[in-house]
Amino acid sequence: MPEPEGSWLRCRGLGRERLVRHLSDYLGTLGFVSEEKQHEEGGRNSSLMASKLSRANPSVPLALERLEFRILSTGGGCLLYWDFPKRIEPGVDSAKVRRFVEEAFSHLERAVSTGSHGMAKIIRERPKELPFEL
Questions:
Q1: Is a pLDDT exceeding 50 seen at residue 1?
Q2: Which end of the chain is less crowded, N or C, counting CB atoms within 10 A of the terminal residue's CB?
Q3: Which residues are within 8 A (CB) of 64 and not within 5 positions of it... i.e. 6 or more apart?
Q4: For residue range 49-106, what is the model confidence (pLDDT) as tens digits?
Q5: φ, ψ at 120 (rounded to 5°)
Q6: Displacement of CA 75 from its chain's centroid (Å)
Q7: What secondary structure letter does DSSP report for 88?
Q8: Looking at the predicted structure, is the pLDDT value of residue 9 above 70?
Q9: Residue 42 Ramachandran class (φ > 0 left, ψ -120 to 50 alpha, else beta)
Q10: What percent of the chain shows pLDDT beyond 90?
Q11: How far is residue 70's CA from residue 68's CA, in Å, rounded to a whole number?
Q12: Domains of the chain, start order
């Protein structure tokens, strides 16, 4: 079955549920409250995760105070899609937005590697590109 295009991250050797937990835990440390829903997409199990900033955090740009992700199971891993926001308006502190995305990726990369004792791996589908338009 072909995989939908447009994913941000690919995880090999780690299931969808564990990646959702790692992402939710990380966002929780930043002050987000996350809600997950399970559903089926194209014959595969997937998770929809919506996160909203519940307490002020100067490291989170205002444009990213609401986030939505879709995590799709694949053979041997999962794909992470950044569903919202898809576009950041001009005038937003782009350096802060880029730093947030880089820190999120770095945290997930460490959490996946540590949690799997170095057996699982997370990679960017499009290296050095943001998961949205800036």
A1: no
A2: N
A3: 53, 85, 97, 100
A4: 999 999 999 989 989 999 999 999 988 899 999 999 988 887 778 888 889 999 999 9
A5: -95, 160
A6: 19
A7: -
A8: yes
A9: left
A10: 53
A11: 7
A12: 9-124 (3.30.310)
Structure tokens, 80: 């992470």
Select the more confidently predicted residue: 5 or 121: 121
What is the model's pLDDT at position 65? Answer: 93
DSSP per residue over 10-58, as a string?
EEESS-HHHHHHHHHHHHHHTTEEEEEEEEEETTEEEEEEEEEE-S--T
Q: What is the pLDDT of residue 109?
A: 92
- Cα atoms in the 13 Å half-sphere on the side-chain side of 65: 10
- Do 20 and 39 meet the contact criterion of CB atoms below 8 Å apart? no
Token couple for 90: 């001009």
| Encoded tokens for 74 | 């694949």
Position of tokens 């050797």?
A: 13
Structure tokens at 67: 């986030």
Question: Which is nearest to 49 in space by CA: 60, 40, 41, 38?
Answer: 38
H-run or E-run covering 131: none
